[in-house]
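Give me structure tokens for this 120-residue protein.
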Amino acid sequence: MAASARRELSEETGVSADPSRVAFVLEAVAPGGIRRRLDIVFLVAGLVPGAEPQAREPGVEPCFVHVDQLSELEMRPPIAGYLRGLLQQGARRYAPHLGNLWRPADGVAGRHEALLSSFR
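Here you go.
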């Protein structure tokens, strides 16, 4: 998983870093199980200071976001609070499972929207 995360980060953003461990695991399951997604969020080490992500996929512009700006982002699944908590509590020895964090895009339960990437 770490090798895949390292490769995907490099391919999609041009940023090189080493996933040091799993921070947490979450699911997003739409009502009725029509859509199901499992996300594994890694902590990284070895990020080159001053490295800036580059757009490498059409329509996707990756960027670094300060933790204070997380609440301004529309994140699906909504993991901003978990990311802030991870930074405040420091690294844990285990990877907690956050459970089903599915939220409809427009706030109406039952509408089945494609889930977007959580954190870029």
